[in-house]
Design a protein that fits this description.
The chain is an alpha/beta fold and 385 residues long. Helices cover 37% and strands 20% of the residues. The strands form three sheets. It has a six-stranded mixed sheet, sandwiched between helices. The chain has a six-stranded mixed sheet with strand order 9-14-13-12-10-11, with helices on both faces. A two-stranded antiparallel ribbon has the order 7-8. It is globular and about 60 Å long.
């Protein structure tokens, strides 16, 4: 089928076809996707399908530019998260719950995302999607009422794809770059609990196992180098596409801090005027946490509030973050230097899963023991390009 355009609009011709003309892994039910939409959809579907298989829970992913901004499974929300995600009093099915968590991981990056869901899309999920800025969705099926809601989104332009849950890709994959055809075996290793068997130090809780598996599957479909932080059944920070692993660790940690601070009493205590829309409230909370408002933003933020905001100082942030723990870190490549562990410890990391194999593994292990972090060697590199 012809696509809307290629990677950029000036790449006017773009098309997609199934390798096997008799069996397509994906059917487009509505809208006209671009090449990036298709790449996001195919990666998102593989991610949520693998998480579903690994954890036995409905899974969701929020994709932007061929990397997940967030991923999660259907774990209940407490009152603070319901307020932070602006879903107080809202009925959430397991599929909707998974997506609310996935989008809430990094709402700034998820703006205009492509959604992946492991389970059939029901009315509750479609009703939530109706209220957010998103380009499209891929799932194994749709309730008729949900499909009608989604087809009406964006004036009928919302992209709806249906994935074949039984489709298995060929053993080898290929791409063409600058007149060269590159062929390789697919990365068809399915991440399971067996990949967490080699615990070098510390002990894994059941929640840590869940979050580490979620993290490993997520970074498997994230542009490398990548590091991801998970907590409570969702990714809370993803550092993608950096040349330096410690930069991945810092980037993911900074995003995790913003997520953690989203539950700070001062953040949840902001009072907005009734006319301020849901997405604007979420955006303002993020900017309030980040703190580097421009003069224009400061005036607009003040105007959006019904009561003045208390300052969220650097001391407030440091004090709050210093009390947190229980986050899990997954790395797609081995951790080469202990500075990664030093930085991870600043962001509440208690569990780490990485391939191992660095010449400095002993230093990494010593750093983990120093901070009381449980360390697992997976012997599994998960680079994705």
């Amino acid at each position: 089928m012809d696509l809307k355009y290629g990677t950029n609009p000036h790449q006017r011709f773009a098309a997609v076809e199934s390798i096997d003309p008799k069996k397509s892994p994906v059917v487009v039910l509505n809208g006209k996707p671009s090449l990036i939409n298709f790449l996001d959809a195919l990666n998102a579907w593989q991610l949520v399908r693998e998480i579903r298989a690994a954890l036995g829970l409905p899974a969701a992913a929020s994709f932007k530019h061929v990397s997940p901004a967030g991923a999660a499974v259907a774990v209940p929300l407490d009152d603070r998260l319901r307020r932070a995600y602006e879903v107080e009093g809202r009925e959430l099915s397991p599929a909707a719950l998974a997506y609310v968590r996935a989008r809430g991981a990094d709402p700034k990056s998820s703006f205009g995302d492509f959604v992946g869901l492991s389970d059939e899309v029901d009315r509750e999920t479609a009703e939530f999607l109706k209220t957010v800025v998103s380009d499209g969705i891929i799932a194994p099926g749709y309730d008729p009422e949900a499909l009608a809601i989604l087809k009406a989104k964006k004036g009928g332009g919302f992209i709806v794809m249906q994935a074949d849950p039984d489709f298995e890709a060929p053993e080898r994959e290929a791409r063409e770059v600058f007149g060269m055809r590159l062929v390789q075996d697919r990365n068809n290793h399915r991440v399971t609990r067996a990949d967490l068997a080699n615990v070098v130090c510390g002990t894994l809780t059941d929640d840590a196992v869940r979050d580490l598996l979620l993290g490993l599957v997520t970074i498997k479909y994230t542009q490398s180098n990548s590091v991801g932080y998970a907590k409570g059944g969702q990714m809370i920070g993803i550092g993608a596409g950096q040349q330096s692993r410690v930069d991945c660790t810092k980037l993911a940690g900074a995003k995790a801090d913003v997520w953690q601070l989203g539950l700070h009493p001062k953040v949840l205590g902001l009072h907005f005027k009734p006319e301020v829309k849901r997405q604007e409230r979420i955006n303002w909370r993020v900017r309030y946490i980040e703190g580097d408002l421009t003069r224009y933003e400061a005036d607009a933020f003040k105007d959006a509030l019904s009561q003045p905001a208390e300052p969220l100082t650097s001391a407030d942030k440091s004090e709050y973050l210093s009390t947190l723990s229980g986050a899990s870190l997954a790395s797609d490549g081995f951790i080469p230097f202990r500075d990664n562990i030093d930085h991870a410890s600043r962001h509440g990391v208690s569990y780490i899963a990485e391939p191992g194999g660095s010449t400095r593994d002993s230093e990494i292990e010593a750093a983990c023991r120093e901070y009381g972090i449980a360390l697992v060697y997976t012997n599994l590199r998960l680079f994705h390009h």
